[in-house]
Amino acid sequence: MAAEAEEIRGVGHSVRRKEDDRFIRGAGNYIDDIHLPGMLHMAILRSPFAHAKLNSVDGSRAQELEGVIAVVTGELMAQHNLAWMPTLSGDTEAVLVTDKVRFQGQEVAAVIATDPYIAKDALELIDVDYEPLGVVISPQQAEADDAPVIRDEKEGQTDNHIYHWESGDQGATDTAFAQADKVVSLDTWYPRSHPSPLETCGCVADVNPATGQATIYMTSQAPQLIRTVFALVAGLPEEKIRIVSPDIGGGFGNKVPVYPGYVIATAASLLLGHPVKWIEDRTENLISTGFARDFWMHGEMALNDDGTMTGLRVSLKADEGAFHADAQPSKFKVGLFHIVSGSYDLPAAHVVADGYYTNKAPGGVAYRCSFRVTEASYMIERLVQNAAYELGMDPADLRKKNFIEKDQFPYKSATGFEYDSGDYRGAMDLALEKVGYEQLRKEQAEAREQGRLIGIGLASFTEVVGAGPHKDYDILGIKMNDGAELRVHPTGKAHLKISSQTQGQGHETTFAQIVAEELGIQPEDVKVTHGDSDDTPYGLGTYASRSTPTVGAATAMVSRKLRDKARKLAAHLLEVSEEDIEFAQGRFTVKGAPDKAVTIQDVAFAAYTNFPDGMEAGLEGVTYYDPPNLTYPFGTYAVVVEVDADTGQWKVNRMIAVDDCGVRINPMIVEGQIHGGLCEGFGIAAMEQITFDEEGNCIGANFLDYLLPTAWETPTFELGETVTPSPHHPIGAKGVGESATVGSPAAFVNAVIDALWPLGVRNIDMPLTSGKVWEAIQNAQTS
Question: Could you give the CA distance from residue 280 to residue 264 in angstroms, rounded to a whole number?
């Protein structure tokens, strides 16, 4: 009945990204492209102080400016019970200040006007009386006895401590250290950085006063979750809230939280009866929205003289900012940091974490990584590298001696993770082969005799992604499961609706390829819809490397559900039993008679026109996927640098990245994501840092002070891959979007330390600017 089908471009094909057709033509639809009739514009007045009592806010002069419709203050918001809102970590956060400001850049008041420039100008006419207070800019200052209490409005809060959290077995770990031949320690700080998406945050809130329908166009990575949060904050019926996330110009975790600007704009639209647009500028984005990292870490490793690792201790102090607003699973106060045992067969480990309020912006996000896994990987890989030097072992040999071996999987870690699969030795061997490791060590020795400082850095990481199984993973009590809804039309074309929200990952292509793989419908014939809470299944969105492990799995499962029904339809059309039907590449054939066949298109048409008695019409379904386990991508990175001891400048000569993300759906897109992650990893190692002076002023409020790597500085990346499928995922994918960011910072830093270890340099905290490197060299030589 059907001709031989063309090859289906499903999993494993480098299909050109479908969404790029509109982007490269300037036809994307971003939040600032949305214009509604009668729309007003909002600008936000932010505090110049990091900590100050708010004595008064007077907006009368601003109100008199022509074009100003309203001045919104914390007092006004409090009258509607909207001055405070819940955070994703179960804390509370001020929407507009009513008592005191707690970080520089905090929202103090807002102006609604007919024009965005009028709104901005009117901010200068708002008179605010501040009374400066003492400032806390680090966890160490926060825990001091005389530290000012930042959250003194909270009942029972008498200091700046937020939480204490532990993982692992303290007793077994203490025993391992008591019996160790050697203990190696490291203190390091992973500095605060910022996701810095190309597009800043913003929204257009449109609340119809007659119907109560609220449509909010928003730069959100999790529109379904945000709708629920808005219902909780604003008290609006959830069925009357529609969150629409249009095309998003990058997110990297920054667009997961609910920001005060969203709430203020929505309240203003409700009260004024007009749509209200708010778009933040770059400085607002850098000083007030979700940051990343800012962990102060102490690690200790217990070893035998032969290099066998026997125990690991890690303690950390987390700088959470003025409100505890991390976007991460409720059960894990520092995310999945307890993956800190990494790729190593450590029999005992114990992790202790404490979080503190400081006078900085809140909202630690999963910036190009799973929840706090980047900090964990950096800690263990820096510690292992230093341990190798102190034992007099080659860093590659120490790692290979202690890797979890391939036949040990599934492997239960000392902190409770069950690793699904891995071949750490295979990834390491490939990286060493590609970089020419043995020859490089010889060249390094020769260079040192000539006075040149060559460094070779390694990092072998294991990431944990795909949160997650409902018994352990939720945000605000909402389980972290995701959905996919699929319909095959009578003509054989398909429409997939997903709960994840793309912001550059290529979901419209890769998820169409999953449908293609399972049903034999070419990816160009699969429309993918996302970002509209009224037209997509419920889910918790896209961040922390969740999309492929959760929504990708849901897509595969719903496709298989439809394929099972299609098999019954094919049997009906071919007049054979269902057991006699075989399926491949979009064709249903009869066993032993391959010429007797129907295509998926034939079957789809029959689902609406010629289905058997007792069968429901149509070919569509929805699946919510509850992962049985997390997935564990891994890899090994190798970096070669040369350091100029006279200036502290360092140059990357080579960078090898071997990743294992299981089955690759679209290899081209995977490689692009790896390149992006490596660029970010290089940026944080070399230049990115948001810091603060003693008064809490943010140093890094623009791209002159907060440096991002450009094509000029970024080194060339050489990629390799191994393939170890996940046994838990329907198509064997592990997910890869963030692994490069997880593994690469330690590789860059280890390379520089490798060059400088003979000079006595043991650690340099990122970013490794030339000044810091030069100073470390001078201090080592002096001591």
Answer: 13
| H-type alpha helices, 539-651 | 553-574, 600-609
| pLDDT tens figures, 517-546 | 999 999 999 999 999 999 999 999 888 888
Distance CA 194, CA 766 (A): 14
Tell me which of 369, 661, 679, 698 is the catalytic residue: 369
How much of the chain exceeds pLDDT 70, in percent?
99
Q: Which of 221, 444, 501, 601 is catalytic?
A: 221
Q: In the prediction, which pLDDT does 5 show?
A: 58
CA–CA distance from 422 to each of 134, 368, 724 (Å)?
A: 50, 22, 6
Q: Which residues pair with 113 in a beta bridge?
A: 41, 68
Query: What are the tokens at 400?
Result: 């290979």
685 with 749: CB under 8 angstroms?
yes
- Report the distance separating Cα 571 and Cα 573, nearest Å: 5
Q: Rounded to an integer, what distance in angstroms lies between the CA atom of residue 114 and that of residue 67? A: 5
Q: How far is CA 139 from CA 15, 136, 669, 692, in A?
A: 48, 8, 39, 13
> Phi and psi at residue 752, in whole multiples of 5°?
-65, -45
Alpha-carbon distance 116 to 119, whole Å? 5
Given 107, 375, 680, 738, the catalytic residue: 738
Peptide bond preceding 594 in cis form (omega within 30 of 0): no
As separate numbers, helices (DSSP H) first and strands (DSSP E) second, the chain gives 19, 34
Distance CA 299, CA 383 (A): 7
- φ, ψ of residue 79 to 5 degrees: the values are -65, -25
Shortest CA distance to 761 belongs to which of 783, 743, 741? 783
**Tokens representing residue 482 in the block:** 């995701």
Distance CA 597, CA 717 (A): 47
- pTM to 2 decimal places: 0.96
Q: How far apart are the first and last CA of the chain?
A: 84
Active-site residue, from 368, 399, 546, 664: 368
Q: Which of 84, 438, 493, 436 is nearest to 263 (CA)?
A: 84
- The 10 Å Cβ neighbour count of residue 156 is 4
- Rounded to whole angstroms, the Cα distance separating 498 from 661 reads 22
Say which DSSP state 403 is in.
Answer: B
The sign of the torsion formed by the CA atoms of 363, 366, 372, 378 equals negative
Q: Which of 692, 695, 691, 694 is nearest to 132 (CA)?
A: 695
| Helices assigned H by DSSP within 403-550 | 424-435, 437-449, 507-519
CA–CA separation, 261 vs 264, rounded Å? 5
Query: Residue 369 catalytic?
Result: yes
Judge whether 22 counts as a catalytic residue. no
Q: Is 201 a catalytic residue?
A: no
Residue type, 350: H
Q: How far apart are CA 83 and CA 234, in angstroms?
A: 11
Asked if the model's pLDDT at residue 737 lies above 60, the reply is: no
Q: β-strands 482-488, 418-419: how paired?
A: unpaired
* Contact (CB, 8 A) for 500 and 737: no
Tell which residue, 47, 40, 46, has the closest CA to residue 68: 40
Q: CB under 8 Å to 194, separation ≥6 — which residues?
A: 254, 285, 286, 289, 291, 292, 367, 688, 690, 700, 706
Distance of CA 758 to the CA centre of its chain: 37
Tell me if residue 601 is catalytic.
no
Helix 260-272 vs helix 223-234: angle between axes, to the nearest 10 degrees?
Answer: 60
Q: 385-420, pLDDT tens digit by residue?
A: 999 999 999 999 999 999 999 999 999 999 999 999
Mean of pLDDT over the chain: 95
Across the range 262-271, mean pLDDT stands at 96
CB 494 within 8 A of CB 525: yes
Among candidate residues 335, 373, 366, 367, the one with its CA nearest the CA of residue 463: 373
276-279 and 40-46 as β-strands: parallel, antiparallel, unpaired? parallel
- How much is the pLDDT for 123? 98
Pull the structure tokens for residue 301: 């490793």
Q: Which among 510, 474, 488, 546 has a CA at the least distance from the CA of 221?
A: 546
